[in-house]
């Protein structure tokens, strides 16, 4: 980038007038060098300071006395923050306020399939499962609903329950009986600190939250005629179409993501920089999308093991022991191990 930006600006000078090349355009020449010298930008930018200065300016109610207004507003906020520490835990304050993408945390001591965390967002749309799949072929209906396994599983669980098998819990019987005929659909869902939106909801939005990635071990076939499956880890990339909530008895629910998936084939490739590109549209259309893995906003990967190793290395080094002492316990003020440079007297000035 540092080598190419000069050439790019020369090419732009042939297109745009001289008034276009102001200070901000010239700043791009120094950004690459600044990143190499200063490191990551968000460790040294001024935005947090400027945002806090904006907060202090909002305390000014009397424009003739701005300093007093800021001092009084700061003192009032500090007192309120101190008092909020002594409020009950069920009172929401700035100290125990949940994050924007907080989920319900799930349930404990129940069947794992019913204990998933997450909460839906947006309006609820109730629809029938049979009505949605009425136009599908029989093979697709069997693949989606696993009708043969469902009936066998229900009969098997009821048979074991009749025999008095202690492994058959109430949640397992509710799961075997199947979900209700009517399901709920949502346009958004929050889980594990992420906020997902359906593809239709974000068509006119700048922020795209419909991308989904799944790493799973599955059986794949090398060809349509091959009957020997290949077992291995496969990464699936998808676009979220629908969010469906299945309801079971005793307030049990399971949330499903209906997605368009891509794992391999002509609709997946890598560019020259190593980024994964996907095409969820027509193969003739070149609307490729770049896969970018993200983390939740309130989750910070500090790489604890690496940090501890760096700390131990620093503690065992000579720089962490302070000034070096000689045999008489005197501090060495002259650096050793470096060759000095002799400077002639005529070059010295006082």
Describe the structure.
The chain is α+β, with helices and mostly antiparallel strands and 350 residues long. 30% of the residues lie in helices and 19% in strands. It has helices spanning 4-13, 23-38, 47-58, 66-84, 129-132, 138-145, 147-162, 170-177, 304-315; strands at 119-121, 125-128, 182-186, 188-191, 194-197, 211-220, 230-248, 252-262, 268-270, 276-278, 289-290. Helix 7 (147-162) runs antiparallel to helix 8. The longest helix has 19 residues, at 66-84. The chain starts with a helix and ends in a 35-residue tail after the last helix.
Reconstruct the topology from this structure.
Elements (H helix, E strand, L loop, with lengths): L3 H10 L9 H16 L8 H12 L7 H19 L34 E3 L3 E4 H4 L5 H8 L1 H16 L7 H8 L4 E5 L1 E4 L2 E4 L13 E10 L9 E19 L3 E11 L5 E3 L5 E3 L10 E2 L13 H12 L35
Antiparallel strand pairs: 1-4, 2-3, 3-7, 4-5, 6-7, 7-8, 9-10, 10-11
Helix pairs in contact: 7-8
Structural class: alpha+beta
The gyration radius over C-alpha positions equals 32 Å
User: How many alpha or pi helices?
Assistant: 9
The rounded distance between the terminal residues' Cα atoms is: 45 Å
Major pleated sheet: 5 strands, antiparallel
Which regions contain 5 or more consecutive residues with pLDDT less than 50?
Answer: 221-227
The percentage helix is 25-40%
The residue-averaged pLDDT reads: 77
Shape: extended
Which terms summarize this structure?
single chain, 2 domains, 30% helix, 350 residues, 11 strands
């Amino acid at each position: 980038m540092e080598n190419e930006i000069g050439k790019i600006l020369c090419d732009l000078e042939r297109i745009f007038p001289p008034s276009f090349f102001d200070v901000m355009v010239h700043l791009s020449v120094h950004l690459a060098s600044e990143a190499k010298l200063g490191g990551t930008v968000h460790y040294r930018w001024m935005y947090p300071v400027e945002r806090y200065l904006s907060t202090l300016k909002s305390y000014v109610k009397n424009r003739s006395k701005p300093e007093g207004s800021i001092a009084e507003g700061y003192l009032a906020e500090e007192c309120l923050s101190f008092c909020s520490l002594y409020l009950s835990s069920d009172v929401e304050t700035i100290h125990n306020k949940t994050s924007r993408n907080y989920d319900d945390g799930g349930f404990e001591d129940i069947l794992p399939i019913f204990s998933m965390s997450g909460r839906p967002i947006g309006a609820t749309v109730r629809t029938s499962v049979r009505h949605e799949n009425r136009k599908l072929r029989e093979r697709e209906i069997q693949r989606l609903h696993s009708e043969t396994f469902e009936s066998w599983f229900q009969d098997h669980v009821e048979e074991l329950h009749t025999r008095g098998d202690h492994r058959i819990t109430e949640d397992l019987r509710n799961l075997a009986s199947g979900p209700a005929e009517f399901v709920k659909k949502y346009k958004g869902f929050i889980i594990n600190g992420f906020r997902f939106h359906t593809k239709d909801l974000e068509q006119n939005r700048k922020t795209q939250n419909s991308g989904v990635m799944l790493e799973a071990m599955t059986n794949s076939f090398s060809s349509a005629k091959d009957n020997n499956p290949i077992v291995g880890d496969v990464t699936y990339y998808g676009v979220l179409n629908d969010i469906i909530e299945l309801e079971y008895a005793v307030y049990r629910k399971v949330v499903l993501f209906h997605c368009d998936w891509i794992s391999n084939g002509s609709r997946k490739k890598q560019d020259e920089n190593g980024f994964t590109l996907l095409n969820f549209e027509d193969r003739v259309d070149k609307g490729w999308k770049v896969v970018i893995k993200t983390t939740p906003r309130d989750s910070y990967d500090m790489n604890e093991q690496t940090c501890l190793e760096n700390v131990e290395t620093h503690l065992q080094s000579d720089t962490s022991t302070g000034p070096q002492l000689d045999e008489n316990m005197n501090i060495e003020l002259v650096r050793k191990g470096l060759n000095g440079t002799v400077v002639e007297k005529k070059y010295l000035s006082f």
